[in-house]
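#structure-requests
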Amino acid sequence: MKKYLLLAAIAICMSFMANAQYTISGLIRNDKEPLQGAEVKFQGTFVSTASDHSGRFQIKNVTPGNYTLIVSFIGYETAYRDIRVDKSLDLTLVLQNKAILTEEVEIQSTRAGEKEPFTYQNISFQSLEPNNFGQDMPVLLSNSISTVSTSDAGNGVGYSALRIRGTDMTRINVTINGIPLNDPESHNVFWVDLPDFASSTDNIQVQRGVGTSTNGAAAFGATINLQSSAIKQNPYATLSSSYGSFNTLKNSISFGSGLLKNHWGIDGRMSGISSDGYIDRASSDLKSYFFSGVYCDQKTILRFNLFSGQEKTYQAWNGIPKDILDTNRTYNSMGMYTDASGKVKYYNNETDNYKQTHFQALFSRQLGKSLYLNAAAHYTRGAGYYEEYREDDKLASYGISPVALPGPYYIIAGDTTFVPDSLISTSDLVRQKWLDNDFSGITYSLNLNKGKFKASIGGSMNTYSGRHFGKVIWMQFAGNAENNHEWYRSKTKKQDLNIYTKTNYGINSWMNLFLDLQFRYIKYSIKGIDDDFRIISQDHDFSFFNPKAGAYLIISQSQSAYLSFGIANREPNRDNFVDANPLKATPKPERLYDLEVGHHLSLNNIELNTNLFYMNYHDQLALTGAINDVGAAIMENVPESYRMGVESSLLANFPNEIHLQINATYSINKIRSFTEYVDNWDTWGQEKILHKNTDLAFSPSWIAGGLLKWDFCKNGYISLNSKFVGKQFIDNTSDNGRSLHAYIVHDLGISYSIQTSLFSSVELNFKVNNFLNEKYESNAWVYRYYESDSFHVMDGYFPQAGLNLMAGVNIKF
């Protein structure tokens, strides 16, 4: 397959190069002076360049024909020039200042830009919209390079997650408009808390590797930078509805005033999503809204965003034992109990319930011709719980004294008979585990764009406070226990400060040097007791220096390359500290050294990107089977581990409006040496097994994706999307018996848009997911133990849906 793709790419390149003939050159300027760094490209092709320090640009080897030249530059209206190429041309294009400052300035300091030595991918709202049938963001991003997604419910609605280069969500930095989204304690992003946020997203940048300095949690392998909806000049309204397999239903309405008096605007969205899920009882009931108000003029943007999500999902966290995957792929053990007559039943409120509300105030100001100030204040309020039915639980586990009954009891045919003087030490009960938190702070940046010299200074100051507590809300035998008995409570406070400076300097017409220096300080305090009555009070503080440096080279008009090296540091999360064995050393911070080398080739109808990466980890926290003093699994620092590989993506346009996108990743992901601990149920100790050069869990060697799209008419297309994920080990021992099989999934999509006198457009979308009905699992967990002279396992696998259908309509006014 690799050889075939390489030969095909070379053949296509040569066929297009053979026809090149003319040169298009010119000057880009405003009404006073030349503009350096303006992007110049041909519409509908991959040909692009940028103006130099004197405002000049040149595009060679242009084939004869009619083209539309597009010129864009921050702060100026995009210019379009239709040209006919039958000879070499020298053009002058004058850009006009925008009537208003636009939102790209809000996030420029935390994104990788032109001529910067980083590995990244930009994703537009237009590419997300046709596939947005209510699935969470990880599913919508699953076709990104080196990305693998998973869903607890099996159909992408409800709890879902993704990995990039094998890196999980707790190590991926996520921001919305430059404001941190990661939970400061767990470092995780719970996408289910923001259902349908894709409908309020204008664009996304995914950086792989350490990337540029950003705000919030450490970017320890990848960064996802989202920008919410852009300023729209004209009023609009969109009604969206979709329905499909597993009773999956999504309804949303989006609307906006356009710019009133060229300065004021209001935008909004309200969404509701429900699904039964592929897995038994893995239902979701999701609601969300997004409202934004903006004032803007030629030099100022002031925006207020208020958005919220509320979810109620039936739990499907246990997965399915491997030995019943072939016979009962949708089995769900959550909420299962046996009633007094011995009949198996399921508790109907075994659910996760959470509401999260975000407020953002964003301010941008052009201070001078080349100087921009950005500042933002934010506040996030979250509260919720998950509820569990517990069968025959020990009352002592909740600090409840044995319950005195009229006497010992026994049950015959469902009737309870008591014998005097009985004490009950166990009972069926229902409990809730709560998280109640607040997160607030400010972000800021000052950005200078002075020709060949670009510089930024920025940072953030954030404060988080969280309260963890548990309540018993019902007991079969309650005795004198109080209603809503609380058995544990802890509180946390975390302060996070970072400051960074970035410089990009063009030393000549073909090389830019980049330097990025970040200092980050974290102070973390935990007070109280955990759910097992352990005192977990502790304090930690960390100071990190995260430098990055690199070079970007322009080899020719059609080729460029880059080299960068960066260091990232990551503090342990709450679970690492709370679960740590007090008899062992406190978990240490992790450190990542990341080397990235990339090459870009852009011709008339083809674009090829290839990059190499080497990510060397020191003290990476990993599951080794080790337990703490009360028998709970913990993560330990592994001295040395690494990821190295090659990523490649190909985009090509063919005659008859056929478009092809292919990406592939091959990587080696290893732990050089670690000790595995296996519980011995005979001795109540642990067996130790030394492993060397083993594979990192959930890190497939091969990941590939492809999209073949045919625009069969001006308003419609058919697409075939494929995703291949190689074998993944589910622990760090490289044991084939504890792995996920490789899989390939194909989706077929059809989209058609109709213009009418009543609506600006009616867009119809239809999708057949997994149309070859591949049976596969995308995630799993495993627990290994030793008993009676042999090893045994408990496990849970997460099957994904087979063939399923979705249909949707977007009515735009």
